[in-house]
Structures are given as structure tokens and as C-alpha cells.
Amino acid sequence: MAGFQVSNRTTGDRFTCQEGQSVLKAMEQRGLKCVPVGCRGGGCGFCKIQVLEGHFECGKMSRRHAPPEAVEKGEVLACRIYPLTDLIIECMPLPERTLAKQTTKLLR
């Protein structure tokens, strides 16, 4: 199975994402890190990325972290998008303060 090429403009990495595989899962399988990882289910917002080019399908994501207007602009969660074509992405890491606050919430 060939899959789709994902180019990360933030880190310069390129990797293959298989059909039906989330972008985050493909990154993790190759040991690549450009965003923090949280729930892996579209609820925490940690793995936000910007899709600059290409088409993708979305799984269910928190509207708080990925409202419809943001998704239309390509601001999505890497754990819940599945490429339909090759993609060019940029990582959108959370500010340290926000990350610490959300991590504390997850640990409770």
C-alpha cells in the first residue's frame, strides 16, 4: 500500500501516511515529534496542525479546539485527520502556559 506523502514545513520532515491512518499515528510510528500529544481522540487540542495544501477527511474533533471555521482554514487536530491526497502541514504547538494548564486538567 503506497499511502500519501506528508511534508512538515515546520521541521522539514517527510513521511508516509497510509490510507485510513491519522497523521499523528503516522508521525508517531516514525518517531517524529512536532506537536504535544494528549488524548489521541480529538478532545484535548494538543496536536493542532495547519494543513497548508492537500485534502483530508476529518474524524470527530472537539469544537472547542477545532471549530468549523478553523477546520475550513485547515486548522485541525493531527490525531483526527486522514489524508486523501499528499499533504503539506505546519505544526502549531501550544504556548507553554496553556500546555501546562491542560496537562494538569488531564491528570486529574
Automatic annotation (TrEMBL):
Occurrences of domain 2Fe-2S ferredoxin-type (ranges): 4-95
A single GO molecular function term of this UniProt record: iron-sulfur cluster binding
Gene3D superfamilies given in the database record: 3.10.20.30
InterPro entries listed in its UniProt record: 2Fe-2S_ferredoxin-like_sf, 2Fe-2S_ferredoxin-type, Beta-grasp_dom_sf
A Pfam family hit: Fer2
The protein's name in its UniProt record: Ferredoxin
